[in-house]
Backbone:
């Protein structure tokens, strides 16, 4: 368990009365935020708490559940060596605010999530497919993407 | 083919600039990287890396393999440093399983992680200096890297994709005579480094091509999620081996080399100094490892029973059969584990649903994030320095494209 910034969750709960909940985790402090509250929370973490590195942005597909996707942000404070995980649930046709304005390094991982999961980010400067050709159909990391078979047109 | 929407292709405003594709088959792109360059004469107006040529869908592949089988996928991400990928993955799964790994196995893991770091930095040194125009060093570093690959082969049987670290410990015990080979390597290494340094120390051509080139400020490095030696070359001593020790790194005495200039020259020397620090760790590790002993956990639900047990013991046979055919169940939950690879923080985020296959398998690969800093480094520079920038970031395309 990363305990390098032990009071971060307390500070967050005093600062923000609502918009997020703590989640039990075995490795690092974790919160689940709502899509509407995420930007104020992220701004606070970036500018006030010095979480200056966005280590990763990734998506998980929980297929039958609603909202279907979960976006996971791994943030890092390079002076305190503290980690924080933020989770946001997103539905299939919903747009998520992009964090590239706060962490330009989130550019490619967000494009990757768009490419492989089909999650759209609002305010992203260059939202195109990253790995796959631009005319590719479907999003391969979704759980309903077929693993084998020939495409019949 | 759908139209590629990019301002680089926008020709509505006529000017003197020119768009050039560097790669994907360019020898100094270290793999299959394409860089779309907008040039004004010799000056780079904009550089845009285009990736995906090596994309093979590792994450999807891994979701359909059992936890032990996924280990072989990790080797292929950063194929110059397979052991650190293995390490990050097995540590992540071990965290979910809450399994204790014997101290000796942890030290052997440290030993191999550092050996791969030296091997990876040797390849980087050879290719980077070759890109700058000094050909001869490449042949020496590749020859010396072979010695490390021989050590890996002696322990695991494979040179390049060893999968030597298994969940719960190691695949096999160390072979006979392994210690002598490592000690011979430790004794030879300073001599080799001295020979290399004759070729680049104070060499005006190399210094001129590194000083003040491909500059990256600490501010930009943090904003662009740059990690590892590239971040340490801007003055931040973030090294996971020191700040969040894993696999008993806290038992070893070593320094974290940093520089403050943030240019290609700083990154060059951070990596050279790192090789010496790795050699310190290797020397300490080989002193701590007994020639024979425990190499994997005794939990038979996770690690395979030894061969001689299988032939004489019914229970061992059942364990072997169940583990090989079905794998083991991992308790539901999620975990992230990062380790300090040669290129920066290599991490795995694993979501388990309680079955024997990972529900989500995410590799946080350092080169992917480090490559994003390339446009910032190249902007306004000369086109010849684009090659310096690519070499000094030390990208690995298998890692970028996963």
Residues:
């Amino acid at each position: 368990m990363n305990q390098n910034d032990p009071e971060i969750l307390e500070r967050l709960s005093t600062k923000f009365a609502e918009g997020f909940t703590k989640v039990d985790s075995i490795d690092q402090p974790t919160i689940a935020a709502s899509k509407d509250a995420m930007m104020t929370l992220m701004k606070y973490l970036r500018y006030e708490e010095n979480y200056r590195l966005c280590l990763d942005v990734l998506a998980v597909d929980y297929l039958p559940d609603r909202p279907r996707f979960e976006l996971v942000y791994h943030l890092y404070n390079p002076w305190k060596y503290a980690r924080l995980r933020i989770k946001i649930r997103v539905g299939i046709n919903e747009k998520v605010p992009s964090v590239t304005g706060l962490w330009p390094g989130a550019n490619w991982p967000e494009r990757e999530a768009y490419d492989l999961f089909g999650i759209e980010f609002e305010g992203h400067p260059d939202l195109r497919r990253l790995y796959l050709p631009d005319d590719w159909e479907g999003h391969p990391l979704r759980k309903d993407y077929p693993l084998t078979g020939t495409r019949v047109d | 083919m759908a139209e590629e929407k990019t301002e680089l292709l926008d020709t509505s405003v006529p000017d003197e600039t020119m768009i050039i594709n560097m790669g994907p088959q360019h020898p100094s792109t270290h793999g299959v990287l394409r860089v779309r360059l907008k040039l004004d004469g010799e000056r780079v107006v904009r550089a845009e890396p285009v990736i995906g040529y090596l994309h093979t869908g590792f994450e999807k592949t891994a979701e359909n393999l059992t936890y032990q089988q996924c280990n072989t996928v990790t080797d292929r991400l950063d194929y110059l440093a397979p052991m650190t990928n293995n390490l990050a993955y097995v540590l992540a799964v071990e965290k979910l399983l809450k399994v204790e790994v014997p101290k000796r196995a942890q030290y052997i893991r440290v030993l191999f992680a550092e050996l791969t770091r030296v091997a990876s930095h040797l390849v980087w040194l050879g290719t980077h200096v070759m890109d700058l125009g000094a050909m001869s060093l490449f042949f020496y570093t590749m020859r010396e890297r072979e010695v490390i690959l021989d050590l890996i082969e002696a322990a695991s049987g494979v040179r390049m994709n060893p999968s030597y670290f298994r969940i719960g410990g190691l695949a096999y015990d160390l072979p006979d005579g392994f210690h002598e080979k490592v000690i011979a390597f430790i004794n030879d290494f300073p001599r080799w480094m001295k020979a290399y340094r004759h070729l680049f120390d104070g060499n005006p051509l190399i210094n001129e091509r590194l000083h003040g080139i491909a500059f990256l400020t600490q501010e930009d490095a943090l904003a662009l999620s740059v990690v590892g030696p590239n971040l340490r070359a801007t003055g931040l001593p973030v090294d996971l081996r020191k700040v969040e020790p894993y696999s008993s790194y806290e038992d070893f005495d070593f320094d974290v080399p940093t520089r403050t200039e943030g240019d290609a020259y700083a990154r060059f020397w951070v990596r050279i100094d790192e090789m010496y620090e790795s050699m310190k760790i290797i020397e300490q590790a080989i002193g701590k490892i007994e020639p024979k002993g425990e190499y994997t956990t005794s939990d038979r639900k996770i690690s395979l029973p030894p061969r001689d047990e299988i032939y004489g013991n019914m229970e061992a046979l059942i364990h072997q059969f169940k583990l090989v055919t079905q794998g083991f169940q991992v308790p539901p939950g999620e975990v992230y584990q990062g380790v300090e690879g040669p290129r920066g923080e290599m991490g795995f985020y694993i979501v388990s649903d309680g079955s024997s296959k990972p529900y989500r398998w995410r590799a946080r690969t350092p080169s992917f994030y480090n490559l994003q800093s390339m446009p910032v480094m190249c902007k306004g520079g000369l086109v010849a320095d684009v090659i310096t920038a690519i070499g000094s970031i030390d990208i690995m395309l298998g890692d970028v494209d996963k």
User: Anything to note?
Assistant: The first strand of chain B starts at residue 18 and ends at 22.
